[in-house]
Design goal:
By secondary structure, the chain is of the alpha/beta class. Helix content is 36%, strand content 19%.
């Protein structure tokens, strides 16, 4: 074995975030399968190891993504009429969904996934409902757009959990899709077929689950058929994002959305309730009893005016709490964690709302990161996630020379990383034992940015 090969397998960091705290002088051994074979604190530097020279963190999972919406980020921030809300934003977003081609989708997704890597994500859960040609006809290969996303992820080196989406109606009282939703149409059998096709591809860093767009977009019988015999894989669903959605569900079923799920489905640890913005205490308690998780997307929820969920209540109930970037107005997990806390501060007029000193967790950043790590891994279908033996060998090397971190005491590094001025704090990013980012630059081909710029020009020229 050459020295270069040994260094790829054996890393050493002066400090690493393990089991919710900083540990010193850490040896990290990458196994042949791209997973951690050994994590050993308090270990001298072996002569054959690559010395990382700065503190390291685990990579995070972006547990909710609509990749094509990256082409729309920043382009809906004007109000031309008297009123603007989630529903008017959705109408504009649909126009993007109807225009984008497979090649443009691949270009947009590759750019997005490169940005997510630089933002500290090493795995992304793609809630994938863009399925058909622009006229609504299926592609010859029904998984054609799934492969575009998989190719984009493989090109930049990020892990991908593909979640084909059950999407069959426009609302509780609308049994058909609207014409501007024609690219989204699926049924339970086609979703299962897409999931099986992705899994059968056996691509590195690619796994799959299923998703249900929302209760308004899928009939109860179809949800039941989708889940029948599904096995142990992630199941994601948008739920209770908007008050209008809650009102419609009450009118149609007599129950609130999360209440309906808890009553009519076998919620368990496979389930991920995305947004769950408008939840009562009784619903939070029901989710906690079921073992299901919640995925919060603070930057998108703020951008769309969704409202604020009760983060302290979810944390107190012990519900797994993952984060997602959703519409990608932000592509950095630090900002998602920051806004999880800041939203509560603004609402309650308090500080460090999510900290729990009585439980030995005085750091808001540490408590949120701990929840996001474990919950995110599970949302992506991994039994183990983080800096632990058996988990995939992902890590982030912090750039200690970043302006926001200069002079920060070691024990407050994570606090400053999350709550100080945004910068580019991750110098290097490792995914499955391979460097996907070096010195702040994605190691993917330099054409990624150029292809994205060209796709954006094609999509928006004259728009």
């Amino acid at each position: 074995m050459t020295r270069a090969e040994a260094q790829r397998e054996l890393l050493w960091a002066p400090r690493a975030w393990i089991d919710g705290r900083w540990q010193e002088r850490v040896l990290l051994r990458v196994g042949a399968d791209g997973h951690w074979a050994e994590i050993a604190p308090d270990t001298p530097v072996p002569p054959q190891a690559e010395v990382l020279g700065a503190a390291v963190l685990p990579g995070l999972v972006d547990a909710h993504s609509h990749a094509f919406q990256r082409a729309f980020a920043g382009l809906s921030e004007r109000r031309e009429h008297e009123h603007d809300d989630f529903w008017s934003w959705r109408e504009r977003m649909y126009r993007v969904a109807l225009r984008i081609t497979p090649q443009q989708l691949q270009a947009v997704a590759a750019q997005l996934y490169a940005e997510l890597l630089r933002g500290g994500y090493t795995q992304v859960c793609e809630f994938h409902y863009l399925q058909h040609r622009s006229d609504g006809r299926p592609y010859d290969d029904p998984a054609a757009l799934s492969w575009e996303l998989a190719d984009a992820a493989a090109e930049v080196g990020i892990g991908l959990t593909l979640l084909p989406v059950l999407y069959e109606r426009a609302g509780f009282a609308l049994p058909e899709l609207r014409d501007d939703q024609r690219r989204f149409a699926t049924h339970d059998h086609s979703v299962r077929a897409l999931q099986r096709a992705v899994q059968a591809g056996r691509r590195p860093l690619l796994n799959s689950g299923v998703a249900i767009h929302s209760l308004r977009a899928a009939a109860p019988a179809s949800i039941a058929r989708l889940l029948d015999g599904l096995g142990d894989m992630p199941v994601h669903i948008h739920v209770a994002e908007q008050t209008a959605e809650v009102d419609d569900c009450l009118k149609a079923t007599g129950q609130r959305p999360i209440e309906w799920l808890a009553t009519h489905t076998a919620l368990d640890a496979r389930w991920q309730l995305v947004h769950a913005t408008h939840a009562t205490q009784a619903e939070i308690d029901a989710v906690a009893r079921s073992g299901a998780g919640v995925v919060i997307c603070p930057s998108t929820e703020a951008n769309l005016g969704d409202g604020l969920t009760d983060i302290p209540a979810w944390l107190h109930a012990g519900v797994p709490l993952a984060i997602g970037s959703d519409s990608h107005v932000t592509r950095d997990w630090r900002e998602e964690l920051r806004w999880l806390e800041y939203g509560q501060r603004l609402q309650l007029r308090q500080r460090n709302v999510v900290a729990a000193p009585a439980q030995g967790q005085p750091s808001s950043a540490a408590r949120l990161l701990g929840r996001a790590l474990g919950a995110g891994g599970r949302a992506a279908g991994f039994a183990r996630w983080g800096l632990m033996a058996g988990a995939r060998a992902d890590l982030l090397v912090i750039d200690s020379a970043d302006d926001a971190l200069l002079g920060v005491p070691d024990e407050r590094l994570l606090d400053a990383l999350v709550f100080s001025s945004p910068g580019g704090p991750f110098r290097d990013v490792l995914v499955a034992g391979r460097w996907a980012v070096r010195d702040g630059r994605v190691t993917a081909p330099v054409t990624v940015g150029a292809r994205f710029a060209e796709a954006m020009q094609q999509l928006w020229s004259g728009a």
